[in-house]
């Protein structure tokens, strides 16, 4: 019987065969025969803080399955280290924290096992958008969602009140607020378009209903230069051209100072923003509010994500079934979810996140409904499929949109998508993937 899993694997296997990577070990963990009384030791690579304390709770209750946490650098260094071990045939951990955007790359390298037999029943415990991140739209399960970064809107409540504004419910209202605030005080901006943060732009495209990669038969499809993303690019390009938002990158000393001195009075960001604001805008504590994202269609609310990761079982693990049991517990058991939030300081992807996060972040101490807003945003995340060359697409974004932001021309923003599309497609073809269209 042909399932959605078959065409996905056909597309991924094309690259695996091209690169000489064997595809013999990524089968479901149900294929293993295990002795329930066997004592096993699992290694877990993660960059989340205090994860050893979370694993200790598991170890105390599971004497036959002991987990040792090995702290790693996050992002690309962790992926590179795992891929090196996979290629060498040894040295990979049993369990790996993996960013959603990196999962297709790891799957195409035969680094992640399909644990659908042991974790597939967890689907209803997570928002659909997060679950899609570990399935790639297939019947396979390449991990269990651990944390997520639903987009939210953060704004200086005192500035909004002074200008007679309320939190924008639509992107039209955001544009109007941006214009009014900047007209009242030319030094103030409601936001900035940051051409160095492809992840945020991806989340904005996701909110609009875009999904940049997909699988058609035995091929990958790429849909970056398409109407939904074009709408997002044209919108932000229009605001930059009009001069009502800034065009400088985020996460620079200049941007940090602007948050702190009140010249940047809004930020489209994610649930983890309070930690950044506490470090960058400490003098403004108590003046910010969090709100749901402005919408393209207020009657059909949606949001995207910026960041987030899953916990996956690697194909080199000799104890895939036990590893799958651990990652299932880690991300769905109420005790574990609470530990993720309180010890590891992440926003759990689980639907139960709001029930364990009963106090708002310190920087938003006066906003008791902070995590209620976050939970609703998490449920509204639109599905989005990443492809195996996210790094190439993001690099193309940095180059093309960097020039567009500097030019301050809306037309350059939409033209940048054409560049991204071509660069991404060409790279897939050069890497040996089948590409639709």
UniProtKB/TrEMBL annotation:
Gene3D superfamilies: Periplasmic binding protein-like II. Residues 1-24 form the signal peptide. Keywords: Cell membrane, Lipoprotein, Membrane, Palmitate, Signal. InterPro entries: Bact_solute-bd_prot1 (IPR050490), SBP (IPR006059). It holds the Pfam family SBP_bac_1. This is Extracellular solute-binding protein.
């Amino acid at each position: 019987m042909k399932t959605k899993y078959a065409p996905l694997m056909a597309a991924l296997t094309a690259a695996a065969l091209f690169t000489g990577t064997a595809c013999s070990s990524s089968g479901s963990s149900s294929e293993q025969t295990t002795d329930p009384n066997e004592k096993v030791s699992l290694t877990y690579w993660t960059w989340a803080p205090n994860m050893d304390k979370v694993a200790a709770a598991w170890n105390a209750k599971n004497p036959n399955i002991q987990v040792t946490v090995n702290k790693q650098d996050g992002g690309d260094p962790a992926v590179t280290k795992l891929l090196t071990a996979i290629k060498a045939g040894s040295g990979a951990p049993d369990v790996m924290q993996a960013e959603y955007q990196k999962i297709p790359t790891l799957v195409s390298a035969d680094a992640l096992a399909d644990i659908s037999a042991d974790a597939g029943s967890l689907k209803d415990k997570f928002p659909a958008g997060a679950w899609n991140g570990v399935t790639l739209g297939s019947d396979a399960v390449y991990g269990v969602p651990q944390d997520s970064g639903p987009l939210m809107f953060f704004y200086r409540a005192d500035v909004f009140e002074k200008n007679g504004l309320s939190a924008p419910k639509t992107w039209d209202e955001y544009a109007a607020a941006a214009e009014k605030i900047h007209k009242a005080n030319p030094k103030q901006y409601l936001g900035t378009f940051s051409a160095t943060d492809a992840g945020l732009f991806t989340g904005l495209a996701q909110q609009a209903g875009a999904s940049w990669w997909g699988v058609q038969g035995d091929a990958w499809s790429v849909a970056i230069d398409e109407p939904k993303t074009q709408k997002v690019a044209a919108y932000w390009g229009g605001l930059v051209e009009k001069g009502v938002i800034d065009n400088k990158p985020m996460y620079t000393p200049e941007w940090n100072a602007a948050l702190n001195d009140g010249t940047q009075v809004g930020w489209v960001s994610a649930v983890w923003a309070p930690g950044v604001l506490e470090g960058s805008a400490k003098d403004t504590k108590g003046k910010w509010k969090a709100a749901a994202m402005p919408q393209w269609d207020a009657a059909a609310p949606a949001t995207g994500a910026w960041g987030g990761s899953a916990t996956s079982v690697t194909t080199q693990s000799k104890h895939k079934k036990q590893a799958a049991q651990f990652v299932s517990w880690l991300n769905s058991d109420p005790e574990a979810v609470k530990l993720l939030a309180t010890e590891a300081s992440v926003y759990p992807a689980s639907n139960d996140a709001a029930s364990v996060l009963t106090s708002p972040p310190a920087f938003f101490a006066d906003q008791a409904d902070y995590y209620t807003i976050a939970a609703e945003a998490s449920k509204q995340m639109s599905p989005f499929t990443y492809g195996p060359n996210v790094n190439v697409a993001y690099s193309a974004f940095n180059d093309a949109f960097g020039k567009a932001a500097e030019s301050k021309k809306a037309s350059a923003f939409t033209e940048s998508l054409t560049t991204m599309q071509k660069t991404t497609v060409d790279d897939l073809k050069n890497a040996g993937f089948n590409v639709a269209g």
